[in-house]
Amino acid sequence: ITANASITANISITANASVTANISVTANISVTANISVTGGVHIHTDRLTVTSPVLMWVQALDLLLDKMKRAAFDFAGVRALSGSGQQHGSVFWRTGASETLKHLDPDHNLEQLLFSVSDSPVWMDSSSSKQCLDLEAAAGGAERLAEITGSRGYERFTGNQIAKLRQTRPDEFMDTERISLVSSFAASLFLGGYAAIDYSDGSGMNLLDIRTRNWSQICLEATAPHLDQLLGAALPSTSVLGSISSYFVHRFGFSESCRVVSFTGDNPASLAGMRLQPGDIAVSLGTSDTVFLWVQNPRPALEGHVFCSPVDQEAFMALLCFKNGSLTREHISNECAGGSWEVFSAMLRETPLGNDGNIGFYFDTMEITPPAVGIHRFDSEDSEVSSFSPQVEVRALVEGQFLSRRLHAERLGYSILPGTRVLATGGASSNKEILQVLSDVFNAPVYTIDLSDSACLGSAYRALHGLLAESGVSFLDVVKNAPEPQRTTTPHPSAKQVHTHTHIHTHTHTHTHTHTRTHTHTDTHAHRHTDTQTHTHTHTHAHRHTHTDTHRHRNKITARKVQNCHKKRKLTTRKCKISLKRSKINAETTKSP
């Protein structure tokens, strides 16, 4: 087990609320525990259920702190601490565990703790499809659930995992007195009592109403009885939960005045570590691409996620995941540039913005956003073609990827503002030509940030902010003196004319026909008739609009239809088809279909 520690130390606060801080991040301390797992998880025989042993996390923390103590780390100088945990995972505390937490013996390690479920469901789990459908039906459909909780029903989300465990392991569920997220579980260890779930990480459960910041009664009742009591009330992400447990004071030498600030999820903590500002967008260009957004007026959709902001109680963050990222770019580089990134970059430099109207969708594996697979190319006449020249292929790939990132971000409520910055991180952020395309598509300057542990750093920033938040000091004021990202590219002067305005629109229609008289209609266009034999047909349409203020480019609609075929009772995706429809519309009256 390799663990990273984020420590906030040596903070002095004067009466006028000025702050000087020396934030020390201790990273890459390797420790070994006696629990056998592969990659930190147990993958069960159904290949859908994925769990992690709770005691593994407990042992890791014990071993990490012991190693730091032997290295003479100054725990007494730590004035506040916070942290992060993988989103969506859950921990089930056994009846009586709260008393054990309060009275931990400092002469023994943390394995004194008791859990009703020894293996916790984690974010990799995808075994709760039935519970997702049940929750969406209870909420009034997938779109309505997304409007309430920020996301449609996802198998890895905590509420659906709780519902599954209650149904399949009722005895263990009945022996549970508290349910924590991984983040609030870790905070509970330091607090010596049950820590509240924070608003931001709580947004990844399909249970929290992201606008009222309260648990949704509809979602609670659809998941488990008396669930509000098991979860406890959620609190702002900036909350100071209390002083550190006496266990850590006596065992490791923490100060009794050390404060524990709400822990949050790893993605929200990364947003804090990157110090996003209103209008900013962060793009992590890794094996998969991840987009973080600061959003003021969110529009939750069936794709992507909207969470409460971890640093501003009035704002939101949006998260989009794209599976086909750097591996797809590497695949095209191998095919078109002989695996040379220098040649790949030269091809981008030598082809024009907009690629003369040629664009492609490159999904080597089943994509998350949108759910589609295959490689689909379109020329300037909107005709599907089987191939491009190597130069055109390279730009079609990169422009298509970044247009998709912008389209889906705007669909969630993101708007490009005059001061918008694009913050790029990840392996591909070292390629200036790729960043130039990113800058052109978003019509905003691109900055690079060298953060390998943004969630750790974000936790340290949040610990500092937690000490001052009640006095009204904003997060951005607290971190304003931190090192700034470096500007690497600015948009080409013609970028605004080439990539002026884009929309993507996706419809999902699900029809299930059987022989009973029960009929339910929801605003997600889902029609359900319940019986033993079920036939399901799904259509997904995506429409792209491109137009400019100068009217020098004609308006286009490109429609993509991904059709999932089925046979008898088992839904089987047999092939994906793309159909194309062209129409001319007046730029001033264009509206998204």
TrEMBL record:
Sequence ranges assigned to domain Carbohydrate kinase FGGY N-terminal in this UniProt record: 122-273
GO BP: D-xylose metabolic process; xylulose metabolic process
Keywords linked to the UniProt accession: ATP-binding, Carbohydrate metabolism, Kinase, Nucleotide-binding, Transferase, Xylose metabolism
Chain residue ranges for the region called Disordered: 531-555
Keyword Protein biosynthesis on entry: no
CDD domains in UniProt: ASKHA_NBD_FGGY_SpXK-like
Gene3D superfamilies per the UniProt record, alphabetical: 3.30.420.40
Composition-biased stretches (Basic residues): 536-555
UniProt protein name: Xylulose kinase
GO cellular component, one term: cytosol
Enzyme's top EC category: transferase
EC number per UniProt: 2.7.1.17
Catalyzed reaction equations: D-xylulose + ATP = D-xylulose 5-phosphate + ADP + H(+)
Function: Phosphorylates D-xylulose to produce D-xylulose 5-phosphate, a molecule that may play an important role in the regulation of glucose metabolism and lipogenesis.
The keyword Nucleotide-binding belongs to this UniProt entry's keyword annotation: yes
One function term, GO molecular function aspect: D-xylulokinase activity
Protein family according to the UniProt entry: Belongs to the FGGY kinase family.
Organism: Amphiprion ocellaris
Domain annotation Carbohydrate kinase FGGY C-terminal: ranges: 282-465
Any one Pfam family match given in the protein's UniProt record, by short name: FGGY_N
